Amino acid sequence: MSVIDKIKNASGPLFTFELLPPLKGHSIERIYTAIDRLIEYAPAYINFTSHRNEIVFRERPDGLIEKRITRIRPGTIALAAAVKYKYNIPVVPHLLCGGFSKEETENVLIEMRFLGIDDVLALRGDPQKGSRTFIPEKNGHTYTSDLVVQIADMNRGKYLEDNLENADPTNFCIGVAGYPEKHFEAANRHIDMENLKRKIDAGAAYIVTQMFFDNNRFCRFRDECIKNGITVPVIPGIKPISALNDIKLLPQTFHIDLPNDLFTAVQKCKSDSEARETGIEWAVMQSKELIKMGVPGIHYYTLGRSDNVARIVKASF
Question: Which domains, and CATH codes, for the chain?
């Protein structure tokens, strides 16, 4: 059952979460440990992030600087498939514009289909590290809406090669991202909403939001979606504060605001464990409020740590 079917057939709000593939050289067992803590709460599906190639510079023994291209978290599709069949649960791999050509994208989608994975979250991805602007791969997509079009074309049996005969259509359910506080590159919320509408019109079936810490921002975003003719389900994304430094890193990294009450509460904490408890309390408050608002589900960004999310879900759902 696809994500959109699960949303339509649910008797209450869905609980879902996101995991990162292990760093290169690390075992899948860490992923299993994170899932084992949450599986008893019956997640509707699990998302797996994808990561583009990165450019790193290393000094050679002769003193010269060598440029290398690496992917620090490979294996998104293989990981998703392993989890799908180990836990008998739907999985949603992320698919990026950044770092992938159209041909590579098509091949990934074909592999997903062979593996029985029919859900995908389409994202543009961040600019290459060290670059201020997003630069697509040669023969790649510049915008998420273009990526959605390619996936939707495959659902209609249209592949990149026009001479394919009797090409079977795929059946991907496509999700996209939304930004309650607007994407940091958008000139304003109006432009950001136009970009979101373009993704929905291209074939996306639902929206998962970037993390936010003020539910009023989500309500405003949901109202703006409706005003602009976006009627697909909007799933709020929650990331609990888990360390003292989060109040500095999260706004810098994800271009989001922290409510002053939350900032002050974490600032008063004397240790990461105290900050973590404060983060759990805030996320429980957010989750309970959102459920009362009638959201179709709540999506939790774990960043690989699931014990705090387990406590939040237990207290909220």
Answer: 3-53+61-316 (3.20.20.220)
